[in-house]
Known about the structure:
- The complex is a heterodimer.
- By secondary structure, chain A is an alpha+beta fold.
- Chain A has two helices and five strands.
- In chain A, strands 2-1-5-3-4 form a five-stranded mixed β-sheet, with helices on one face.
- In chain A, a hairpin with a 2-residue loop joins β3 (57-61) and β4 (64-65).
- Chain B has helices at residues 34-42, 54-64, 97-105, 122-129, 142-155, 182-185, 198-201, 205-224, and strands spanning 2-5, 11-14, 44-48, 68-72, 112-116, 134-137, 159-165, 168-174, 233-238, 243-248.
- In chain B, α2 crosses α8.
Amino acid sequence: MSVRVRIPTPLRRFTANAEEVGVNGDTIGAVVDDLERKFPGMKERLCDDQGRVRRFVNIYVNGDDIRFLNGLESHVNDGDEIAIVPAIAGG
Amino acid sequence: MNITAAKGASAVLCASGRDSGADSAGLRLGELGAPERERLRRGRVLIVGVGGLGAPAAMQLAAAGVGTLGLVDFDTVESSNLPRQLLYRTADVGLPKATVAAERLRSFPGLSVRCFSRRLVAADAAEIFSQFDFVIDGTDRVATKYLVNDAAVFCGLPFSHAGIVGFHGQTMTVMPRQSACFRCLFPTPPPEGEVPTCQEAGVIGPLAGTIGVIQAMEALKYLSGAGRLLTDRLLIYDALGAEWRSVRLSPNRKCPLCGAQPTIHRIESVEYDIEECR
């Protein structure tokens, strides 16, 4: 499946400042792996060393939190929009 | 509105709209009639952190006719604050932010300002919060954002959460035990150093102003009863791309604070002891 991933500004240093990137995968986990292949270093910002989504990052598929779907096993379809939302603490 | 010169080279906005709401174009809106404006006048908003977010929020609320503002900030004005914290002037560098902000805001007729020139801590957060109707989280510290969230939920106090860094901002409004809280989104504080700090990434002034003003708008809507609050949504602003997005939130049944089986039953100070983002 070919999906679009919205990259939050704090992570655009990995994507040469691209706001949105196209990646492939049947699940969110596969999407993250493809992100890593195309943009090395990205996965470490999203997942811990056991492959779980970091607790200060949330991932959404078409606006729905994957924690309420099937986590990294959540299926994606062609054209889905994936959003990465990190915790932001500045004020 | 009249702009009059105050001490030194500073100029202070005095909003005549506070005295007679009908004279202010912004207050002729149907949604803000006499009853709503009276609710604003009786309203009490606490702003925790009078910096990039809190300063513009405070100015907007003061000008809109909110009756009471509470300001919590332990910090002093630094020259690096000036490009985005528009309440402060060069002559204020070194002075306590809460005190300076309170003095400046008291130029608005009829506004009562309560000044807490110290750090918000777990020991008395609830006692302070109980004096107000709405809280604005203007803090720049991960740990304090959790403290604000937890204290507000325990007090049943609606509040606006926000975070900014670089050119990225996001904000949500929380109606405790009705809508998603901050811990529904991020259940536990991240390890120190994992979340980009203002010191590492910086933050651009207009972004801070934009998000802070939205927080003020949420307070005005809550107090007046107008419109729909930013609950169960996270509003995200990408200032570089000039794009607004939102994601849906919902109360998390596994939330350690407001979920079905909470594990947090009181405000614990130790969890909030994370290195400050300055």
